[in-house]
Amino acid sequence: MRSRPDLLDPQTLSQLGGVELIARQVVEGFIMGLHRSPHRGFSAEFAELRAYQPGDDLRHIDWRMFGRSDRYYVKQFEEETNLRAYVLVDVSTSMGWTSNPGVLPTKLWYAKHLAASLSLILLRQGDAVGMAAFHDQVVARVAPKGGTHSWHELLRRLSPLEAQGTTSAHTALRDIAVRLRRQGLVVLLSDLLVDPETTRTALRFLRHQGHEVLVFHLIDPGERELPAAGDTRLFDPESGDELNVNIADVRSAYRDAVKDALEEWDRSLRPHGIDYVVVGTETPLSRALRFYLRKREHLG
Amino acid sequence: MGFLSPIFLLAGLAVAVPLILHLFHRHDAKRMVFPALQYLLRTEKEHARTIRFRQLLLLLLRIAAILLLVAAGARPFLRGGGGVHDPTATVLIVDNSMSSGLIRGGARVLDLLKAVAIRSVDRASDEDRLWLIRAGEPWGPAITGSRADVSAAVSETEVTDARGDLRTALERAVVLTSGSGIEAAEIHLISDLQASAFEGTGSAIESGPVPVVVFDGGSGDRENTYLDSLLIGDGLPPLVNQRTRLSVRLAGDADSADVPLRLVVANRIRGAATGGVDDSALLPIGPFAAGYVDGYVETDPDDLRGDDRRFFAFQVRSAPTLATAGPAPFFLTEAIPVLVDAGRVRPAPLRDAEILISVAGVGMTEAGTEGRAVVVLPPSDPALLPGLNRALASAGIPWRYELTTALGEAAVTRWSGPINLDVVRIRSHYALIPDGVGPNQGVLASLSSGDPWLVEGTTPRGSYLLFASDLDERSTNLPVTAALMPLMEWMVSRWGDTQGILGGAVAGMPMSPPPGTTSIRDPVGALHPVDATQPFAATPAAGVYEFLAGDSLIQRIALNAPREESLLFPIETDVLRSLLPGPFSLVADSAQWARAVFAAGQGPEIWRWLLVAVALVLVAESLVAASGPSSGESRSRAAPGLQETVQKTVLD
Predict the structure, then answer these.
(1) Do A225 and B33 touch (CB under 8 A)?
(2) Which backbone phi and psi does B387 adopt, to 5 degrees?
């Protein structure tokens, strides 16, 4: 079980290779896990047969082939292409931060790999996947396309992205809203260190246009709990703000403020049908993928 | 409070450490990139006030801990409060004057003062030197001895009828302490602080560096009604078988006009009357046979008993014999028969007369008897002055007559006798020049020019009374005024042992025994052997004193409580403070007395308590510091909570 890449923690996973390799292994592992899980497969059309393996669903055994060959074959299904998905990746400066360099990956690393994994799953389901990377403006865009070949294009644009600039999520979201003519799925990967009000408004706007919206709030463990330090001058690389604090003095209040902020995001988005999930960068990618899977099931 | 190791207080400069850390430490803070600063900004804004308050509280607690620790290291001790003190020369002044007999709250003020004095003795150590001065017994020496001796003396102290002279007592105390040879000194003034007890010169009492601890035992109700004065026969004693009257004046705070008065003579009530405050009541008295008469007038007792009774004593005798010599003026020759007819004098030959009225010195040297009183009138003819002066010198009278250049009428001033001389004018007079005595010694009355007009004195040969002017109508208008006869009567009667009648003698005053006195019997009957050449000072009680020569009575004198003691209003604190410019403390609560005295002494050390306080402050500091969680335990508690939140969101 522990050998499945989708269940590896990001620290271990990052040592496996590049985005493509990691994402592929994660997705493979994830899908294999799904076969053993109570979750059902996707809506798909029959494509081919393969030899039965222990654990396959008996309902998928092709009894006609069993009659002809006296062997068990399982039906393989053709994936449908009925969903246009757009993955939005925040590449602002704050995404390039990690509280424990060399041990924990940055939020951007996590976002890239989650985006690649999600895209691969979507493409394998036959959906069309597009991508946009943004900070205060959109810096990379891949139009939604189906087929696995478009995944490589997506990875080619995604891999070289560096954290830079300030975050202006609502600008990117409005840009996407203009370009997405068909209703689809919008997945936002961001640390949400943004102006909350304008970002919420933009997300609600997308939802208002009929899109399904899924927000992955990426958060570093060091952002939940302040480090063990005394008097510190904290510096925000995006805004340039500095603050002298005694960590001990503000630790408890900061913890409450983070909790309040997360709850505020959840409270303000969920009533509008926007799914919101907090993902720590220390957690395996499968958690986020599982959350996506549930969402995808609802979409049929 | 003092310190045994005051040098350790320098360590108090360490309070600068938390101050500096508090004010400047943030400038040395390390810089750290932190993108989630917006959460912190929100936190900082919401909790800035709490954080600032907490930091300030921490700062104060840390400073308090340092200061308490430094103070404990300096080994502080409390002064007074039962601690030991350096050997101290201590003078207790207990005010046992008449006013200390005031009953207040069912107890005498003196009993309270004695209790306070006993506390002083209890607080003293065996190394101290103690004196007790009884302010109501100014003739008595300061009592010294062991603590037990002084304590016993305090216990034996009783109220006197004398006046308390606290100024003199304080000056005596200063002398005692300065001569003790002990470096530390303290004066405990334990009194009802009656303002009149400080009368005298208004200058401050130089107590130097000696601390004066004052106990005010006189607070509270101070109303008092008292017999202010008593006068018999308008100042003239009654003669044998004569009736006279006794005038009593009431004073004080009673608002009734019917204050009862009783006259007691020889222990029997002889009369009664009522009177009001600031009014005089008249009581008839007499007739009496020859001899001494004594008694008292009293009113109903109030809270201060000592002044509710006034004593008197006088000698009743036959009318004195009188002779005149020389060219007596007309009005004098006419007045003497009137006195004779009234029984006030008896005419007698020059040789046998007890009183001689000598005009121009005639008769003074021709027939003198020991003890005779001489009234000298100058001649109207200045040419007779040399003869008069020779007669005066021969009689041993230290005065002589001379012509004066003063012109015009002059009024009589500085006259304190019982006769009203306001309308009397002197048109011509001689100058009375002292010859061997002080210029004002024995002067009973002066003229408005300042020259003596009436002089009295005593020589070994008898008493004398000198007039500066003749009594004829050319020299004065006295003969044609109503004052002539009373003045004549006073003139011939004033040698009749009238002491006590005028009420001038007060308890506590030293008395000069008459020649031949061997003992004095005081009012309580105690007999005191005396040397007649020395004043007798031990007169603590009001009443009648008898001067005895063996078993024979020579004289009786009545002493009364001084009226100043009846004025109970207290001295104002500011005035008292100005009188005592040195170290001074005033205590009104007897319970606080033990703490107030020997204040320079070392009390118990309190460094242990300070260490306890340090521990408590540090505990408080820890609690306050922990309220902003910085420990690993706090983190480990908090992190799962957030993780649970995240996981819950993920799984939903």
Answers:
(1) no
(2) -65, -40
* A140, A158 Cβ separation under 8 angstroms: yes
Using an 8 Å CB-CB cutoff, list chain A residues near B635: 225, 228, 251
Domain membership of residue A270 as a residue range: 84-299
How many residues in total does chain B contain? 652
Does A93 contact B35 at a Cβ distance shorter than 8 Å? Answer: yes
> Is A125 among the domain residues?
yes
Q: Does residue A143 sit within a domain?
A: yes
- Which DSSP letter does residue A61 get? B
A212-244, pLDDT tens digit by residue?
Answer: 888 999 999 999 888 777 778 888 888 888 887
Q: Is B289 on the interface with A (CB under 8 A)?
A: no
Provide the whole-model pTM: 0.53
**Amino acid letter for position B474:** R
Taking only the tens place, the pLDDT of each residue in B251-273 is 988 777 788 999 999 889 999 99
In a domain, A7, yes or no: no
In tens, the pLDDT along A233-277 reads 888 888 888 887 778 777 888 888 899 999 999 999 989 889 899
Regarding whether A268 and A132 lie in a shared domain, the answer is yes
Domains identified in chain B, total number: 4
Please state the domain count of chain A: 2
Contact A223 B33 (CB under 8 A): no
pLDDT < 70 regions, chain B? 4, 24-29, 43-48, 79-83, 200-202, 219-222, 367-370, 494-504, 600-603, 627-652
Q: How far does A244 lie from chain B, in Å, by closest CA?
A: 7
Residues of A numbered 116-155 whose beta carbons fall under 8 angstroms of chain B's beta carbons: which are they? Answer: none
Check whether residue B98 and residue B187 sit in a common domain. yes
Of B29, B46, B628, the CB nearest to A231: B29
CB B469 within 8 A of CB B445: no
Query: What are the angstrom distances between the C-alpha of A30 and each of A120, A187, B542?
Result: 11, 19, 124
- For position B499, what pLDDT does the model report? 42
Indicate if ipTM > 0.85: no
C-alpha span between B163 and B96 (Å, rounded): 9
